[in-house]
Design goal:
The chain is mainly α. It has a single domain, classed as Up-down Bundle (Rhopdopsin 7-helix transmembrane proteins), CATH 1.20.1070. The chain is 73% helix and 1% strand. It has a two-stranded antiparallel ribbon with strand order 1-2.
Length: 273
Amino acid sequence: MGTDLRTRGPVHARRRLRVTRPLATTSAVAFVSVALLAVAVGEGWLGPDVGRGANFCEAPHDGWIRQPANTLSNAGFVIAGLLVALRAGRDRRPDAVMSTGVATFYACVVVLLGPASAAMHATQTEWGGHLDMLSMYLIAGFAAAWAWVRWTRRGTLALVTAYVVCVAACEVVGLWPDPVPVVHYAGNLAFGLLLVVAVVLETQRWRRGETVIAFRQGVLALVAMLVAFTIWLLSNAGWCDPTSLLQGHAAWHLLCAVAAYWLFRMYASERQA
């Protein structure tokens, strides 16, 4: 009984630190990135309005936020990233495949999707568009790189290398100036291809049966992403009202945030068999 009383304090302190560290780090990233976005929009740091993102239906408004629905819907990514961070600290198990550090990094990437995408829709500037695309590359690059290192049984260095290569490759592909079928922009195609690679590798790993993983949570993420893409296509095809606050592209943002959350739930469920 005495031993339990002596060790209880340090053990509980370590547990609290493990729980709060991912959330604290991700919350700091959320606060700083959103604050920087607000200042950048207010001060005009991102440059002049060149109509970037105007093809996403919503008519531009006067004032700081050019596309209110498409901008504010990006709060879904910030919320999803914070939820990921909360679970990353609270649900950590010794036999988990994804480390707390990697989970925290993923949470931060999900959070950054919000202000980065909002930068384009709020300002319709060229730099806002670059930030939007970069955030897409960051999340798709992570999904592909994480699937690949687990498929090939490699470690942290390989993950970092594969991640940098994926993001850099997307940036290079995005330089292609001509339109591409269906998704219009070469950068969108690169984003989609990385997600396809991730789905294929995750499916093959699940079938290989080397680990225990709640694959149904990955299915939920995939379904949310497919529904989001369908809405994205319909909205771009003209099935929308430019003057309405109910925008298909805003639904795309929210559903992608849901997909990012459930993707993490799949990652977090993985255990060594």
